[in-house]
Amino acid sequence: MKQESILILDFGGQYSQLIARRVRDDHVYCTILPWHTPLEKIRDAHVQGIILTGGPNSVYAEHAPCCDAELLSLGIPVLGICYGAQLMTVLSGGTVIRSQQPEYGSVPIHLNKESRLFSGLPEDTICWMSHTDQIQSLPAGFQVTAQTQNCPIAAMENSRRNLFALQFHPEVLHTREGKTILHHFLYAICGCSGTWKMDTFVQQSIDKIRSQIRSGRVLCALSGGVDSSVAAAMVHQAVGDQLTCIFVDHGFLRKGEGDAVEQLFRDKFDMNLVRVNAQKRFLDAISGISDSETKRKRIGELFIRIFEEEAGRIGSVDYLVQGTIYPDVVESGSGDAAVIKSHHNVAGLPEKINFRAIIEPLRDLFKDEVRQAGIELGLPRQMVWRQPFPGPGLAIRIMGDVTEEKLRIISEADAIFRDEIDKAGLAQDINQYFAVLTGVRSVGVMGDERTYDHVIALRGVTTTDFMTADWARIPYDTLAGISERIINEVRHVNRIVYDITTKPPATIEWE
Ligand code: XMP
């Protein structure tokens, strides 16, 4: 039986993926397609409902993204949000104008409780607005279902045709009843029953992978990061020993991390794991290099080369596992959203390995769903919830050229920082935190001696998407404890500073 599903048609809005996550959180599967997807493809998808997202344009602008008006006559319920609401208006014969007073932020709103979308909700509540245009006149057959002080048509609907439009954003948490409004759309209007559950998904994926691979041999590059670990664990449950994981330890991992990866996958999961201790080769490859992009490039290239060498030793393989996740798929497919790539994976695709096909078991999942899948598969909580760590690792947290001595300093300082944050119970509140070897030396005094040693910077950020970030307000006492320990325990460090810059203008990493 075909999985029930909602289609999100993306008009380039900043919240499109957030809408999808809210729908999935409510146990309904959904996919995001670009606004220019042909009508036939949409019709053939047999979805339960369609959501038109917001977008940065004005509906009357030249080349404004549009969809076929027929979309509203397929007999499938449609919910237009912000730009999507304005588009629904224009396609149905109403008009849109530039608002006299654009609304941005939390705004009081009055809801008409007769609307099925708002059933059971308080009549007066708060919604999140972000618009410069608004609906001016209703299309025939539509009724106003909500208004704010400056927006007389903050929601409208043609209930008979199951067409609904919201000027505000139900997916944003500031819209107090947003979750319930989306829930009503999915369940009361589209008739969904809530079949999207992680345990079922994991089991079905394992079955699918097993029947695809049969007796073939599978290879996976394991980095110890969340995505590759969950992908490997899933394929391992499907085909056991037919899977070999190659873990290339480049020596730029955090203290103790290489051993932890090995222990988890080889000992606990009993996987075929090849650990390649290539620390020296990597260090040689970037010896004397100060430019961060060159470091990244050299590390990435060597990573692939070593992976290919090891794969060659294993012999022929049929499949290669990749930890691609849904945001990668959407970002590479939609084409017109202003996407800033926030990560640059170490490994591209190896060219010297012959394989029949790529297996991407996480292609349909958002990051938080990948974590849930990891828990279902029995991976430890701290591994599934770990903070992001860049592929080139500590090599880009040492400003300038990398040496063994500098690696020792940074990995020890970083371990102390993490330990103290754990002890202070702050690990869940700071989304990423690490130490940086600044490349600056400063004068200090220890005992009666003058010192001239390294300056370490601590960086801690709070963020939801890693594209913008604020610096974490770590309590002074915790910072004091970290500073004291690093100075006392790590040789050749005589000064600690805390980075208090937001992103933008700074990035999260220093290089
Ligand atoms: P920036 O420094 O660009 O970082 O604000 C945003 C996020 O991306 C991570 N990052 C990387 N990840 N390879 C990676 O796999 C890299 O070269 C790299 N550079 C930055 C960074 O840790 C943060 O989470």
Outline the structure in words.
With 511 residues, the chain is of the alpha/beta class. The chain folds into three domains: 185 residues, Rossmann fold (3-Layer(aba) Sandwich); 187 residues, HUPs (Rossmann fold, 3-Layer(aba) Sandwich); 94 residues, GMP Synthetase, Chain A, domain 3, CATH 3.30.300. Helix content is 32%, strand content 24%. The chain has 14 helices and 18 strands. The strands form three sheets. The chain has a nine-stranded mixed β-sheet, with helices on both faces. A hairpin with a 7-residue loop joins β7 and β8. α5 packs across α6, α6 packs across α11 and α13 runs antiparallel to α14. The chain is globular, with a radius of gyration of 26 Å. It starts with a strand and ends in a 13-residue tail after the last strand. About 3% of the residues have low confidence. Bound molecules: xanthosine-5'-monophosphate. The site of xanthosine-5'-monophosphate has 15 residues, from loops. Xanthosine-5'-monophosphate (XMP) binds next to loops.
